[in-house]
Amino acid sequence: MDIKLELVAVPVTDVDRAKAFYEQLGFHADHDVTVSDDIRFVQLTPPGSACSIAVGRGLTRMAPGSLDNLQVVVKDIEEAHADLRGRGVETTAIQDMPWGSFVYFSDPDGNRWSVQQTTPRNAGAQA
User: Fold this and answer.
1) What pLDDT, in 10s, does the model give residues 73-118?
2) Which of 29, 51, 103, 109 is the most buried (most CB within 10 A)?
3) How many CB atoms lie under 10 A from the CB of residue 96?
4) In terms of DSSP bridges, do strands 112-117 and 70-74 run parallel, antiparallel, or are they unpaired?
5) Separation CA 89–CA 30 (nearest Å)
6) Contact 70, 106 (CB under 8 A)
7) Residue 80: phi, psi to the nearest 5?
8) What's the chain's Rg over C-alpha atoms?
9) In sequence order, what are the beta bridge partners of 11?
10) Which residue has the higher pLDDT, 7 or 125?
């Protein structure tokens, strides 16, 4: 049996601000539907991903900014780092670990993201 992760809710305070931020990252806005005064569903998909995120009203009980270390994977961490910076996103420096190379950033609410290149730039790097 295959089990595929389809959608992850990202808790935010301002739906429009969050949507604009993720579109700035290059995520595609698949849906933006206001169901009622209490529910608005915005689905955004990272380029090349089969899994999407959802921001909105009435989607989750998590506090805005409480999502920590949602991880995406890239082929080239240096390219990803430069791309994020070029899009105006504040990131950490590239961090090399024995299990991969990483860059971290947060959305406007403080939800923390990890970008990983699974093959370390330097296989002998230490944590």
Assistant:
1) 999 999 999 999 999 999 999 999 999 999 999 999 999 999 999 8
2) 103
3) 19
4) parallel
5) 22
6) no
7) -65, -45
8) 16
9) none
10) 7
Write the DSSP assignment of 28-95 as a string of letters: EEEEEEE-SSS-EEEEEE-TT-S-EEEEEESS-SSPTT----EEEEES-HHHHHHHHHHTT--BPPPE
pLDDT tens-digit series, residues 9-41: 999 999 999 999 999 999 999 999 999 999 999
- Rounded Cα distance between 62 and 65, Å, is 8
For all residues of the chain together, what is the average pLDDT?
94
Residues 6+ apart with CB under 8 A from 111: 10, 11, 12, 64, 65, 66, 67, 68, 70
Closest CA to 72 of 122, 13, 22: 22
Tell me the pTM: 0.91
The pLDDT tens digits of the residues spanning 37-58 come to 999 999 999 999 999 999 999 9
Q: Which two tokens stand for residue 55?
A: 């921001």
Q: Which residues contact 17 (CB under 8 A, 6 or more apart)?
A: 108
Q: Are strands 95-97 and 70-74 parallel, antiparallel or unpaired?
A: unpaired
